[in-house]
Write a structure and sequence with these properties.
Elements (H helix, E strand, L loop, with lengths): L1 H18 L2 H5 L25 H14 L6 H9 L26 H14 L3 H13 L17 H13 L15 H6 L30 H11 L28 H19 L3 E2 L8 E2 L1 H13 L3 H14 L1 H4 L3 H13 L12 H6 L6 H52 L1
Antiparallel strand pairs: 1-2
Helix pairs in contact: 3-5, 3-14, 5-6, 5-7, 7-9, 9-10, 9-11, 10-11, 11-12, 11-14
Pfam families: Prenyltrans
Protein name: Prenyltransferase alpha-alpha toroid domain-containing protein
Keywords: Membrane, Repeat, Signal, Transmembrane, Transmembrane helix
Length: about 425
Amino acid sequence: MNVRRSAAALAASAVLCVGAAPAALAAPSPSAPPAPVIPSGLFGKKDPTYDGVWRQSFALLAQHTVGVKPAKEAVDWLVGQQCANGGFASFRADAAAACDDKTMFDTNATAMAVQALKALGGQDAAVKKSVDWLKSVQNEDGGWAFVPGTPSEGNSTSIVISALAVAGEKPADVKSKAGKSAHEGLLAFQLGCAAEPASDRGAFGYQPAPDGKLPANADATAAAVLAGLGRGAVVSPAAADTPAAALACPATGAADPAAAAQGAAGYLAETLKKDGHLTAVTPGADQPTADTGNTADAVIALAAAGHQQSAAPALEWLKANSAEWAKDSPAALGTLVLAAHATGTDPKSFGGTDLVTALNATGPAPRTAQAEADKSKTSEKSDESQKSDSKVWWIVGAGLAAGMGIGVLLSGRRKKNQL
């Protein structure tokens, strides 16, 4: 998920650069603008410019999944990021200012916010507005782009379809003005039986290369598995478990999103066998390195497709190698919590890490934890009050006893005088 947001940030930067004036590009500002102030309701302490809504959505979704009741201010912050038209930007430093034609809307952030708000409940109006907005920015080919108005790509198309499914929509019925369905937009990114090398068959691509070839992309593939199955990021362990299989070739019958998802799962399982994890070449590097975020995505995707056995080695790799990657990162910790949930693993004992506690520590204290803290304070005050009351009653009691003693003496004197 971290990698997906990095790619999204690069895409956003590219769009901004295309529209920038030549003079601005030729004379960069002598100093970078100050990082936004981190709002009290937001998870994470790093610059939220490109991932504020994304990481907040994952944090809230993960908390809800494991039975933690998120802080009200955290939920309010997310709801407050929504624009009047239903869309979300990656982050709005001033949520009180109205969104306008300069607002860079983010389909990925909007889709994840839909999943989080739908899961939390009580946000039906906000969810509907976002769903309507997502439908309104569907491209003619049936797919979606990270930035509306740009060409469709496999990641965003998959993420939006998952959100639509979670919200109760039928992606097959969500069609563009040109009559292309969301599923048609998705399936256009799968490498089919004619793909070379054969090992790439079943995978999904991000976007075609300049030469027109569609390269396999593990991130897009993991997201496409969930989209093809009509699932969101929250996956419960499957009752039955079978090994993942390669894409069935030659293809028979009409294109089927569920079959495409199973073929994609087969590609992920086979790719994971090489190192036990996925790899990627980061910008500026010439050698691939371990891709922890996409490995976690792949585990969730395989679990959703009913292939927990195929996900097991990657899950063990994550337990041993994800701590540094996820440290203080709400999106990363949230993703690992969801990976643990999908595989029936205890998120409070994940390779020696309590993911839930670590996630909670990156944002406002959950309502359950806050309630316990308030209860503890109330109890302490009650104890002090009881002690104070005890002292008062001891003094009163002592006074009464003394008074009774005096009364007895006085009574005795009266009797003597009467005698």
